[in-house]
Amino acid sequence: MEHRPLGKTGILMSVVGLGTVKLGRSEGVKYPATYAIPDDRSAAALLDKAESLGINVIDTAPAYGTSEERLGKLIGGRRDRWVVVTKAGEEFSGGSSRFDFSPSAIRASVERSLRRLGTDRLDLLLVHSDGLIERGMPDELWAELSALRSEGKTRAYGVSTKGAAGSRACLPHCEALMVTIGGPDETGVVASARTAGVGILVKKALDSGRASEPGPALRRAVQTPGVTSVIVGTINPDHLEDNARWALGTGPGEVGTGSVPAGGSGG
Predict the structure, then answer these.
(1) Which position among 31, 35, 64, 157 bears the catalytic label?
(2) Domain ranges across the chain
(3) Which residues lie across from 12 on neighbouring strands?
């Protein structure tokens, strides 16, 4: 598994990362099929598979139900083997999301995430945008994110955005962005981020499980110049292995080189 630098942060990430919403939440999600949240044994097997494939990125969030708390117990003594990405700003309860982007709420969320994850620092903290805040994030929010990094509570920060316009507005202030890349405007954001030395994580590359051709879709995302890591959510170890192989062009029923072209490297 290839590992790429996350912009200028010094963090190295596997080109495929594991999204973990399905470890902690099954309500109000956008996947086409229902699923049962796995038990601890199954979740541990999933993480073991990820590690065996060379995947080192775990993506979670307070809005993912019990995901953070479960991961804290599951990764335990092997915390240093993982690049932990979490978010702040969104909570999910009672079937709906609530957002609070005040500096005090962001700090409280980070402190809680640290406790849940059983760690003294986050590798990457992302503001979990509601699609509005990213277009006009106040200076005091950027200042709070910077302070959290200075205090060592996170190694880097950025925004999980919901559109190209918001991504462009945040780009000058961020060390990383989590984006979708379904259209030319979004691909342009990735190119701008690459020029600026801002790391890019890609979400929804498989359209939340709806992609008709997941192999080519995942490969395109991985090979987009400027992309650091593509986050794919699954609770099936076999599907995770398929994702890893597809990223290298050697997925089920495919023939590939087993490597990503040099032009696909980010950073």
Answers:
(1) 64
(2) 3-264
(3) 5
